[in-house]
Amino acid sequence: MALTPQDVSRLAELARIELTPAELAEIAPQLDVILEAVASVGQVADQDIPPSSHAVPLTNVMRDDERRDSWPAEAMLRGAPAQGQQRFRVPRIIDDSDAG
Amino acid sequence: MSVQYSSDELMDYDEVMERFDVVLGLEVHVELGTRSKMWCGCSTEFGGEPNTHTCPVCLGLPGSLPVVNKKAVESAIRIGLSLGCEIAPWCRFARKQYFYPDMPKNYQISQYDEPIAFDGLVELEVDGTGYEVPIERAHMEEDAGKSLHVGGATGRIQGSDHSLMDYNRAGVPLVEIVTKPIRGTGTKGPQVARAYMAHLRDMVRALGVSQGRMEQGQLRCDANVSLMPKGTTELGTRTETKNVNSLRSVEAALQYEICRQGAVLAGGGRVKQETRMWNEAGGFTTAGRSKEQAEDYRYFPEPDLVPIAPSREWIEQLRAGLPEMPAVKRARLQSEWSFSDLEMRDVNGTEGALDLIESTVAAGCAPAAARKWWLTELARAANERGVLLEDLPIAPAQVAEVQRLVEAGTINDKLARTVLEAVLAGEGSPERIVEERGLAVVSDEGALSAAVDAAIEANPDVAEKIRGGKTQAAGALIGAVMKRMGGRADARRVRELIIAKLS
Amino acid sequence: MNRDICTATALELGRRIRTGELTSVETTRAFLDRIEAVEPAVHAFLSVDGERALAQAAAIDALVAAGDPLPSPLAGVPVAVKDLLCYEGLPTTAASRMLEGWVPPYNSTVVQRLLDAGLVILGKTNLDEFATGSSTESSAFGPTHNPWDLDRVPGGSGGGSAAALAAFETPLAIGTDTGGSIRQPASMTGTVGVKPTYGAVSRFGIIAMASSLDQAGPCARTVADAAALHAVIAGHDPADSTSLDEPVPDVVAAADSADVAGMRIGVVAQLGGEGYAAGVEQRFGESVELLRAAGAEIVEVSCPHFTQALATYYLIMPSELSSNLARYDAMRYGLRVGDDGTNSAEAVMRLSRGAGFGAELKRRIILGTYALSAGYYDAYYGSAQKMRTLIARDFAAAFEQVDVLVSPVAPTTAFKLGERVGDPLAMYAGDLCTLPANLAGVAAGSFPAGLAPEDGLPVGFQVMAPVLGDDRVYRVGAALEGLAGTADLCGQVPDLPVEGSGEAAK
């Protein structure tokens, strides 16, 4: 299946990456080639094989509910592109929250 | 804050009930009261200076990794068990991906198709009728940070110039409880939803996993509702109402949405699938983001965390340690206290009353008296102050002490109210207040006798009636005596004196 | 170049520092001088931390002078760290404009262990941007050149660490390996690089590329040095949930013994033949024969699903990468572009990521976004996870028959700079021998097998061992090193153009 520049544009939007028209035109065919090369994994799509999400199987790795000192706010804010009132300053947010 | 008005057309609730069936769905987030966050050792305490409860992990700094808080998993399992759920023998965390500045990693670690608990049932009673709320799942996830919107109308996101982010809440553990579609609630849908929320609140408190304070966001409800014309079976388009932060608003918001949707459908319109925001002050909902285009969250198993596989032994150990569930407890206490159904309904209908009465009884007070004080005098005080009963500055033991003073004849009911008010005003213990304010009833027989004589003399007609055998007229004389004594008299003793003198 | 210091092994330097024959400060200075001299030609480092390195060295010298015990056999020995590991106080950039100048407020566990063991951190080495590449050409700060031939790539993504070793700029280096980023550069520079068992070395504080595949490991010029460094950085870390709470295999003893007599060694049928350079095949074959002669039993083993490793990897890696890199959004740290007071946060995120990420990274993020998106998950990511299971089963079956598996590390020797830049698939194909080990989490190392006759460039020999069988990797690697005489292969690196303080070319 060929990815159109429109498809790539939608994916770039999902991934929050601004692409120039030239980049869009370049990436679409490259992705097609790659997708063709990786399509062979689809042969097991319908097979009853347990998927591996992890390299080495471990379970129940947990920590006790112990409080540790937090970091000084200034250390956490040091790398911030902008700040104010001991908070990270960010550009205006378009209201499409769906927290939770 | 500027007041907003709504221009929504509403159908009369009763008319909606005649024409439509209601289907509800509730998604409730419980903020767990663990000491530390879900993935790191930062404090979960509410408040705190901005960004002082943060570290590289909850700020999602490059290279940081999460480690699961065992207490949070335990709490989720206990919640699941209390909801009658099955506990997954093996489940994973998953990343729910969407970009938003309050989420440091731009994915929320949650659970997707493998929740820790699933398939439960909650049984509720509303006005004497039983209802069932089927539970789809309860899963673990993390909270996001808080934004402060600057510029534009005060504190609103719309029109703001920029925002300031505080990540103290980021990574605080949450359990999300999702119901299956709730049907068959008849005309009581909004009340069932409210009762369900109250049940969850009582349950998480009984479990000790959260204080369940809705006003602090420890219990948050997203209320889904749709209507279907009577006699049809196809589910209608639903809306999801957010920002519902009290029991009262759960009921009110659903009732509003039901009436709004009823009007839309009756007018031949189509309900838009969208998120709506509850406006507490105005008592209406407003349209939020349209959900016509489904979000693509690109869930996948969280590779930084390993699966959770609670052993049978662990689950059974947690099950054995579950406290008495609220409904069971209520039934037990009703019987222990010999309250009528009606009396018990008042108790159940007042947030926090059950536990406060229980503590007051434990401090030596008679159940009926404890109930009386909490549901009348103190409920009124809480209402006036706009706080919950439990937030009143009075301890159950102090209420019990007041009742002890009444029973000892030291004060009467009226004085008791004065004492309670003084306790609330911070004047100290009831005993001290009685002493310092000189509120104890006068037991000096001489003074009392003189006051009775004076009252008889001032009211010869009444005295005559009583002499004629109409002892019920004594009340007027008692009032007169009380007035003379500044209220500090034992009404029973006054009555005895009056009858004795006039017979 | 101070040959006496710069060409010595790390363990030898450690011994001389410990006994007072040499100070750590002298040692550190010799490498800092070497870095200054050859960096213009090699560009292995993104930052050099001379002042702090000398202070760390002086602290070790003070311990020696006071007769106090040293924390490890490598105390006082310099090390270079891939610029993907957080090191407090020094920029950690992942070779990306996105993180240019970002200084982490905390140390990665690996860095902390290096410091605790008394190693001296020289600086941070170059890599492909966010470790996504096989040539170090996608570094936002310019490519690293292969000391064997400056017109060629040093491999990737850890080309900086490998080139720094081959150029004698450091005796030790730390790399990370998601699909071969330690082993393939080792192969292309004639050095040693080991990807430990997944979970053996903590990932905490290492900028994540693909979480279920990433593993940090040691890079060195000799097997014994690599083993000593492995012993320093490996071990359980409660801050990494995927860290193995198991004893670290005794890799130092294994490297010491170098004994393969009676070992069963499996040659993977699927990793060789068509598409492999003649010199690669030849050196690989000779190495196998040397091991056989030393008493190992050689068997051919079939791992049929290894042919699917490339496809599997190039779905799982971009998927995890796309998610791991979501946090670089210009809100809390890193590059911010377009914050002009009118653009929304969303637009600023998009603009910053558009400007901050390079072409290869964008390609992979979009590929990963696609593979995880609704409707495609089952065909791509979901299937890749099933294939991953089959690849792990191939390993399990193979390790029923043999103690280790061996193969070439890469189908070719180092290729020319720019040769594969426009052709992602050709670039990816260079990883096909190294990917299976990451997918299954097993231990694997690359060891020098000599030079390819046709181009005189180094060829690597891969040894793979089961989970927590890291010691076997070193045992075989050390045996080969002795048999093939490759311990000082880098001594054959041609003279490098030098700059600065009149230091003679080597």
TrEMBL record, chain A:
Keywords: ATP-binding, Ligase, Nucleotide-binding, Protein biosynthesis, Transferase
First-tier enzyme category under EC: ligase
Enzymatic reactions: L-aspartyl-tRNA(Asn) + L-glutamine + ATP + H2O = L-asparaginyl-tRNA(Asn) + L-glutamate + ADP + phosphate + 2 H(+); L-glutamyl-tRNA(Gln) + L-glutamine + ATP + H2O = L-glutaminyl-tRNA(Gln) + L-glutamate + ADP + phosphate + H(+)
InterPro entries for the chain: Asp/Glu-ADT_sf_sub_c (IPR036113), GatC (IPR003837)
Region feature (Disordered): 79-100
An example molecular function term from Gene Ontology annotations: ATP binding
Any Pfam family: GatC
Annotated GO biological process: glutaminyl-tRNAGln biosynthesis via transamidation; regulation of translational fidelity; translation
EC number: 6.3.5.-
Description of how the protein assembles with itself and partners: Heterotrimer of A, B and C subunits.
Family: Belongs to the GatC family.
Function description: Allows the formation of correctly charged Asn-tRNA(Asn) or Gln-tRNA(Gln) through the transamidation of misacylated Asp-tRNA(Asn) or Glu-tRNA(Gln) in organisms which lack either or both of asparaginyl-tRNA or glutaminyl-tRNA synthetases. The reaction takes place in the presence of glutamine and ATP through an activated phospho-Asp-tRNA(Asn) or phospho-Glu-tRNA(Gln).
HAMAP family in the cross-refs: GatC
Descriptive protein name: Aspartyl/glutamyl-tRNA(Asn/Gln) amidotransferase subunit C
Species the sequence originates in: Propionibacterium ruminifibrarum
TrEMBL record, chain B:
Domain Asn/Gln amidotransferase: 355-502
Catalysed reactions, as listed in the record: L-glutamyl-tRNA(Gln) + L-glutamine + ATP + H2O = L-glutaminyl-tRNA(Gln) + L-glutamate + ADP + phosphate + H(+); L-aspartyl-tRNA(Asn) + L-glutamine + ATP + H2O = L-asparaginyl-tRNA(Asn) + L-glutamate + ADP + phosphate + 2 H(+)
EC number(s) given by UniProt: 6.3.5.-
Molecular function via GO: asparaginyl-tRNA synthase (glutamine-hydrolyzing) activity; ATP binding; glutaminyl-tRNA synthase (glutamine-hydrolyzing) activity; transferase activity
Domain of life: Bacteria
SUPFAM superfamilies for this protein: GatB/YqeY motif, Glutamine synthetase/guanido kinase
InterPro entries per the UniProt record, alphabetical: Asn/Gln-tRNA_amidoTrfase_suB/E, Asn/Gln-tRNA_Trfase_suB/E_cat, Asn/Gln_amidotransferase, Asn/Gln_tRNA_amidoTrase-B-like, GatB, GatB_Yqey_C_2, Gln-tRNA_amidoTrfase_suB_CS, Gln_synth/guanido_kin_cat_dom
Pfam families listed in its UniProt record: GatB_N, GatB_Yqey
Keyword Ligase: yes
GO biological process: glutaminyl-tRNAGln biosynthesis via transamidation; translation
Keyword annotations of the record: ATP-binding, Ligase, Nucleotide-binding, Protein biosynthesis, Transferase
Key word Protein transport present: no
PROSITE patterns: GATB
Function: Allows the formation of correctly charged Asn-tRNA(Asn) or Gln-tRNA(Gln) through the transamidation of misacylated Asp-tRNA(Asn) or Glu-tRNA(Gln) in organisms which lack either or both of asparaginyl-tRNA or glutaminyl-tRNA synthetases. The reaction takes place in the presence of glutamine and ATP through an activated phospho-Asp-tRNA(Asn) or phospho-Glu-tRNA(Gln).
Quaternary structure and interacting proteins, as annotated: Heterotrimer of A, B and C subunits.
PANTHER family referenced in this protein's UniProt entry, alphabetically: GLUTAMYL-TRNA GLN AMIDOTRANSFERASE SUBUNIT B MITOCHONDRIAL AND PROKARYOTIC PET112-RELATED, GLUTAMYL-TRNA(GLN) AMIDOTRANSFERASE SUBUNIT B, MITOCHONDRIAL
Protein's UniProt name: Aspartyl/glutamyl-tRNA(Asn/Gln) amidotransferase subunit B
TrEMBL record, chain C:
Alphabetical list of SUPFAM superfamilies matching this protein: Amidase signature (AS) enzymes
Cross-referenced InterPro entries: Amidase (IPR000120), Amidase_CS (IPR020556), Amidase_dom (IPR023631), AS_sf (IPR036928), GatA (IPR004412)
Tree of life domain: Bacteria
UniProt catalytic activity: L-glutamyl-tRNA(Gln) + L-glutamine + ATP + H2O = L-glutaminyl-tRNA(Gln) + L-glutamate + ADP + phosphate + H(+)
EC number per UniProt: 6.3.5.7
GO CC entries: glutamyl-tRNA(Gln) amidotransferase complex
This protein's record includes keyword Phosphoprotein: no
GO molecular function, one term: glutaminyl-tRNA synthase (glutamine-hydrolyzing) activity
UniProt feature coiled coil, ranges: none
UniProt-listed GO biological process terms: translation
Domain Amidase: 26-473
Keywords: ATP-binding, Hydrolase, Ligase, Nucleotide-binding, Protein biosynthesis
Active site: 82, 157, 181
HAMAP family reported for this sequence: GatA
Its job: Allows the formation of correctly charged Gln-tRNA(Gln) through the transamidation of misacylated Glu-tRNA(Gln) in organisms which lack glutaminyl-tRNA synthetase. The reaction takes place in the presence of glutamine and ATP through an activated gamma-phospho-Glu-tRNA(Gln).
Family of this protein: Belongs to the amidase family. GatA subfamily.
PANTHER family: GLUTAMYL-TRNA(GLN) AMIDOTRANSFERASE SUBUNIT A, TRANSAMIDASE
Quaternary structure and interacting proteins, as annotated: Heterotrimer of A, B and C subunits.
NCBIfam families per the UniProt record, alphabetical: gatA
Record-given protein name: Glutamyl-tRNA(Gln) amidotransferase subunit A
Top-level taxonomy: Bacteria, Bacillati, Actinomycetota, Actinomycetes, Propionibacteriales
